[in-house]
Amino acid sequence: MSAFAFVGKLPASKSMLNRLLLLQSYSPDLRIEGDSQCEDVLRMRAALADLAAGREMNAGSAGTVLRFMALRAAREPGTHRIVGERRLFARPQQELLKILKQIGVEAKLSENSLQMKGEGWRLHGDTLLVPFERSSQFATAVLLNAWDLPFDLYVSLGGQKVSEGYWRMSLRMAQELGMRIDFWDGDFRVPRGQKINRFSYSAEVDVSSAFALAAVAAVSGAATFLDFPSVGLQPDVGFVAILERMGVPVVQTMSTLKVERTRRLTGVAVNLKTMPDLFPVLAALCALAEGESDLYGAPHLVHKESDRLHQVAEWIRRLGREVEVKEDGMVIRGEPVAAPGPGGLVLNCAGDHRLAFAAAVLRAAGFAVEIEHPEVVTKSFPEFWSILGWEI
Question: Which end of the chain is less packed: N or C, by CB atoms within 10 Å?
């Protein structure tokens, strides 16, 4: 396999785009700078169009689409239905029912749909209680749908917060677009009648996608990312400092990031509380690093598109490394030599795009890896395999 080489600009962040598309539904004059053809963004566009036309919405496997659109549709009087893949509805979604009940919306979840009926948001009680312990997306869905309400919205966030980096990104975007938010003791208030007061917003390049390519470069080549945010809203921008700590040559300017292959990866301890999506790819790198790595702070890994915690642990054990699974992460005792067993390794991505990225890192490092269902990358980064130049 030839060394990997990439220079270019990646598509815009799917996380930022789906938030901006939702916001644009409240202010059609808002111009969004940046785009992506990934499945999650296409689903969001289609769902918003379907809501406007009074049709059934399809979230596919996109958690943001289901959660954001449930609260968006609830703003509109009438009956609404959102369908999707069973594995999406097998993820934590009961929080939606708790939120919808408090705003006067009748709702029912099935194995592949959410049915809703209501007259718009009609808050029962003084404060809306929003669960936060399994995903920050429920709080984000409430916040980003709180424009131009006829009442002051008081929100209390319940449970230990997870994915706080994405929540902070949502807060920052809402504030930059004109929303006034009053905070106290971890709770907040959105005053009535808030309106978007900007006409354009630029979405950053997708930092999570950049990490997948940067990890490949760290074990097999080089990558230069153009228009890379030196200080960005996406929490996964923290990967740059992690790579540096692992001994990867990194050069960053105000608008570019260059990552080159290292001769020696070093084990690292990382708190993934604010950036859990880094876990699968980072775990693959840690399996190739000298010494022990401790990845912690992300108990909600089991609730992602797959049970990432145990799936990745199984893979690493099959590489011949020792792994200790903990409630919020794992300890990996790495080994820098790629020593695939007879016949190589067949890795099933289990419908999870980030597992496919992790498998690609192992293959780039020299393991004879066969990747089952590589097409799952279309969820967030459909260009991934073509950028690598691999026939998958």
Answer: N
Bridge partners (DSSP) listed for residue 251: 258
Owning domain of residue 356? 4-8+204-388
Q: Could you tell me the two tokens for 175? A: 């504030």
Residue 68 domain flag: yes
Residue at a domain's end among 190, 219, 236: 190
Residue 195 lies in a domain: no
Please say if the pLDDT value at position 340 is more than 80: no
Name the DSSP class of 12.
B
**DSSP string spanning 254-269?**
SSEEEEE--S--B--E
Distance CA 45, CA 66 (A): 12
Same domain, 184 and 208: no
Task: Please tell me the total count of domains within the chain.
Answer: 2
CATH assignment at residue 229:
3.65.10.10
List, in sequence order, every residue forming a beta bridge with 294; answer none if it has no partner.
269, 331
Same domain, 127 and 84: yes
Q: How far apart are CA 186 and CA 172, in angstroms?
A: 16
Angstrom distance (rounded) from CA 77 to CA 246: 53
Q: Which of 230, 232, 213 is nearest to 165 (CA)?
A: 232
Evaluate whether residue 19 is within a structural domain: no
Indicate whether 342 pLDDT > 60: no
Name the pTM for this structure. Answer: 0.93
Q: 300 near 348, Cβ under 8 Å?
A: no
The three-state secondary structure class of 138 is helix
Q: Give the model confidence (pLDDT) of 127-159 as tens digits.
A: 999 988 788 899 999 999 999 999 999 999 986
Find all residues with CB under 8 Å of 269, minimum gap 6, and list them: 293, 294, 295, 296
CA–CA separation, 143 and 162 (whole Å) = 16
First to last CA, the chain: 13
Cβ neighbours around 26 below 10 Å, total = 18
pLDDT value at residue 158: 83
